[in-house]
Amino acid sequence: YNYKPSNPETREKYFHQIIMLFKAWRDEDNDLLNGFNKYEEAFNNMMENNSIEKTLITSHLDQKKKIESKE
């Protein structure tokens, strides 16, 4: 799947996928949303409050940009 955060139709799915990759979870709805109504809100909270997950996600996004720029 190639969801993009810039596309309003796939924005939530994009943040859902990123959180699934980098957050430990057992119950998808409870653990991934972490009390928020939208995955984008949960993602922003995770990036603000969890340095380990933020480091992993930032590294992943940097590598993805490098790969996309070569295409």
Describe this structure in words.
There is one protein chain. With 71 residues, the chain is mainly alpha-helical. Helices cover 69% and strands 0% of the residues. The chain has four helices and no strands. Helix 1 crosses helix 3 and helix 3 packs across helix 4. The two termini are 17 Å apart. The mean pLDDT is 88.
Question: Which key terms come to mind for this protein?
Answer:
single chain; 71 residues; mainly alpha; 4 helices; 69% helix; 0% strand
Question: How is the secondary structure organized here?
Answer:
Elements: H1 11-22, H2 28-33, H3 39-49, H4 51-70
Helix pairs in contact: 1-3, 3-4
Q: What is the gist of this entry?
A:
By secondary structure, this protein is an all-alpha fold. It is built from 4 helices and no strands.
Which outline best applies? globular
Report the sheet with the most strands, covering strand number, pairing sense and barrel closure: none
Q: What's the number of helices?
A: 4
The radius of gyration over CA amounts to 12 Å
Mean pLDDT: 88
- Strands, count: 0
Uncertain ranges: none
Structural class: mainly alpha
Helix content: 55-70%
Beginning-to-end CA distance, first to last residue: 17 Å
Element-level helix/strand string: HHHH
Strand content: under 5%
